[in-house]
Amino acid sequence: NQPQQQRPPPSVDRGAWLALMGATMVNRSIPLPDGRRLDLTGRPLVMGILNVTPDSFSDGGQHNETARGLSHARQMISEGADMIDIGGESTRPGHTPVEATEEIARIAPFIAPLARETIISVDTMKAKVAAFALKQGAQIVNDVWGFQRDPDLARVAGEYGAACVLMHNREQEDAAIDIVEDILQFLSRRS
């Protein structure tokens, strides 16, 4: 099935539909700010997740102490992770939001040391946090709100030439919606 042969739902921008449907058919590499490239032409790439929050949904805050977090990231690298995604604010349901300064304090001990060893992605929805991480050597911005929470985040990523991971998110669950159409509408919005 070629994406051009499929039709988007009436409420979804055709260009966004084609881009999203074609995402699995990407046959290229993505340049990173430091000159390296993410090669998407071969095997799937593995992103190791390092949550350095006290309330992480995936690891319960096991890696928010510097030595333990660095050790865990290095273990993921030795086990085959192609890059490490570092997050300093939980996004689990019911999480307590933190200010950018707190999020930066949480990720600061990890970005520069690990950026010397592998590709680093920063998991944030805040431009100020992304700018800090990119200055420290991060190469990718991973935003669970698809550049729709902080109007400056896309600009910051662009200024640094960062690769981006944009995700769909919702304030509340709704079993009655068509989730695919909701995703396409969400990702086709302009900030």
Largest sheet: 5 strands, parallel
Determine the structural class based on helices, strands and strand pairing: alpha/beta
Number of helices: 6
β content, as a range?
15-25%
User: Mean pLDDT, as a whole number?
Assistant: 81
Order of helices and strands: HEEEHEHEHEHEH
Radius of gyration (CA) equals: 17 Å
| First-last Cα distance | 31 Å
Helix content: 25-40%
Unreliable stretches: 1-5
Strand runs, count: 7
How are strands sequenced across the largest beta sheet?
A: 3-4-5-6-7
The gross shape turns out to be globular
Explain how this protein is built.
The chain is of the alpha/beta class. Helices cover 34% and strands 15% of the residues. The chain has helices spanning 14-21, 66-78, 100-115, 127-135, 153-160, 179-188, and strands at 29-31, 37-39, 47-51, 83-87, 119-123, 140-143, 163-166. The longest helix has 16 residues, at 100-115. The radius of gyration is 17 Å and the shape is globular. The model is unreliable at 1-5 (pLDDT under 50).
